[in-house]
């Protein structure tokens, strides 16, 4: 089996399914477990820190771990950095067969910090019986020193190991999500998968095809690839199903706003569309393009292209703001200040519109849109209210990135088109 600790709503699991494999996920969150069940993924609802390892001994070929990132994330208080020496101490003890978690937990500023040491408890026990064959772990960039500590022990146990920071956008994810990755194998040289995308498209060469340009939010969401420039946004309800945080009338649809210049393709006058003309990203994810292949994409008739939509990553002053023709920044959810919203900005051609009273008001991203930007299918069965769904999405591993990391271990080729078509 493949054992998946802190399995969440199924980022790794969905990637494995597309690649023709399955995992057993350990997850505590009720709504993530319900999402996994609806997606047909095998799940044990349990506290990873308390669940015994013995049921997996002698049966585990692959090992995956993505510990909760809230204690380390830029979106939180980052007390994990304060607790980092304690986590290192816990890992060192567990790797040597000493369990000091109880004493160290009492000294942690954030009790979630020590969860990053839990994979070592499993790995130590599994290694005693010659398991697993391969390991894949993921966390926020600040956890890289911890992954290097894991790597040192895994090498002692006979693994080839690679650790480093990868940008999800380099693998076709419409989001510049940077993550610390550990890859290890007993049977092959561990190395990162070759990137398939770049910020600027590369030409083909004698050594093979060049990398495609980063996938934009507009491409991922199907904007410009169908007869409607933007998708519908559901109205009503705050992040937890409560009051709507936006003024009345601002949460109808993005397409309703196009008469006011809601969608301006970038560059001005050019409709964004998928580079893969035979289907397109949005078509493979549920917004199918019925345009005949021999006809050009429809153009936008927006009045003077007055506005361009951008995605603001949170409500804070230093929020990342990206145009729709760019990948999103890292999606953060789980706190009201971390809401992602579509904001309208005047185009360069009409800067005077910045003072216009008709400028569209912010519109919060939907769970469906956020899931697509994480490369989940459009119809992925997110469980719970809006806040619970957004929390799951923000904490998930993008399935397309996971597939790139897992395919070499599974000895199967990965075609990103096949991956998205299977969604």
Explain how this protein is built.
With 423 residues, the protein is α/β, with parallel strands linked by helices. The chain has a domain at 2-200 and 396-422: Vaccinia Virus protein VP39 (Rossmann fold), CATH 3.40.50. The chain is built from twelve helices and 13 strands. A seven-stranded mixed beta sheet has the order 3-2-1-4-5-7-6, with helices on both faces. Strands 11-10-12-13 form a four-stranded antiparallel beta sheet, with no helix packed on it. A two-stranded parallel sheet has the order 8-9. Helix 2 links the parallel strand 2 and strand 3 (42-45). The radius of gyration is 22 Å and the shape is globular. Residues 225-304 have low confidence and may be disordered.
Helix content: 25-40%
How far apart lie the N and C ends?
Answer: 23 Å
Q: What string gives the helices and strands in order?
A: EHEHEEHHHEHEEEEHHEEEEHHHH
With strands numbered from the N-terminus, the spatial order across the biggest sheet is 3-2-1-4-5-7-6
Main beta sheet strand tally, sense and closure: 7 strands, mixed
Tell me the strand percentage band: 5-15%
In CATH, the homologous superfamily of the domain at 2-200 and 396-422 goes by the name Vaccinia Virus protein VP39
Instruction: Give the structural class.
Output: alpha/beta
Shape: globular
CATH class of the domain at 2-200 and 396-422: Alpha Beta
Please tally the β strands and state the result: 13
Question: Runs with pLDDT <50, length 5+?
Answer: 225-304
The appropriate CATH architecture of the domain at 2-200 and 396-422 is 3-Layer(aba) Sandwich
Q: How many helices does DSSP assign?
A: 12
Report mean pLDDT, rounded to a whole number: 79
CATH topology of the domain at 2-200 and 396-422: Rossmann fold
Evaluate the radius of gyration.
22 Å
